[in-house]
Write a sequence for this structure.
C-alpha cells in the first residue's frame, strides 16, 4: 500500500479510521483519496483498506495573507 507516495506495510486488514489513528491524523481536518476517489467523511469509519491501495491524505492548513 502507498500512503502519500510512500510505501506503507499493511500488516493486517484494517479500516481507514484505524490507519488514521496509527498515523495520528485527525479525520476532521483532512480529506482522504483512495485510488483517485475521494472518501466521503461519513464513510471513513467503515472503509476497509487493501494491500494495493494508493492513499492520499490531504490536510487543511490555516492562515493566509493580511
Amino acid at each position: 500500500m502507498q500512503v502519500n507516495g510512500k510505501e506503507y506495510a499493511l500488516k493486517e486488514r484494517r479500516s481507514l479510521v484505524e490507519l488514521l489513528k496509527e498515523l495520528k491524523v485527525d479525520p476532521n481536518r483532512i480529506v482522504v483519496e483512495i485510488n483517485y476517489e475521494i472518501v466521503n467523511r461519513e464513510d471513513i469509519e467503515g472503509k476497509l483498506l487493501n494491500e494495493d491501495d494508493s492513499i492520499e491524505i490531504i490536510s487543511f492548513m490555516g492562515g493566509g495573507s493580511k
Remarks:
- Residues 16-22 form the longest helix (7 residues).
